[in-house]
TrEMBL record:
GO biological process: bacterial-type flagellum-dependent swarming motility
InterPro entries reported for this sequence: PHP_phosphatase (IPR050243), Pol/histidinol_Pase-like (IPR016195)
Domain of life: Bacteria
Any coiled-coil regions, as ranges: none
The encoding gene: ycdX
Key words, A-Z: Hydrolase, Metal-binding, Zinc
GO cellular component, one term: cytosol
Documented EC number(s): 3.1.3.-
Organism annotation: Escherichia coli
MF terms (GO), sorted A to Z: phosphoric ester hydrolase activity; zinc ion binding
Protein name: Putative phosphoesterase
Amino acid sequence: MEDAPHHWHFINMRIWPRVVDGVGILRGIEANIKNVDGEIDCSGKMFDSLDLIIAGFHEPVFAPHDKATNTQAMIATIASGNVHIISHPGNPKYEIDVKAVAEAAAKHQVALEINNSSFLHSRKGSEDNCRAVAAAVRDAGGWVALGSDSHTAFTMGEFEECLKILDAVDFPPERILNVSPRRLLNFLESRGMAPIAEFADL
């Protein structure tokens, strides 16, 4: 994507400290789904430097298609084994088969994001879709992840609108991925990440 960080930025993450000012650092990326084969713009040595890989649809890379094509691309990405979270799957510009996506995500241990920014600043009209996503993940026994998608420090970690969506469908709190460092770390380790020594006491 134009103006995205160079791949060396991500490879260089391997030298970042694990704790800065008392804050644990996970090395991650929000990558782009590129095509119906589920390829993302993260490859090679980048994978070796990253702990957490999120991927989603973004118009400059993958334009909105019909429901079947969008669904095929998202499920292929989920099944690839390369991603941990799918970002803003409730985006109304990208119609998907919500049930099929949620079932694939549960099968492959990939979380679907409920994105707070989708209800405030971007992706207008996401509410109904996100409720459907949350309900489908609930029924499939999968994970949701909460995202502030703040793009600034001022709203980082704000999930108020996300929680309204989860409350509306009685989503089980034990299936919310990122409510504690240990739950997220356990999830990443279950997906193959080596334990991080600096986080052993979290």
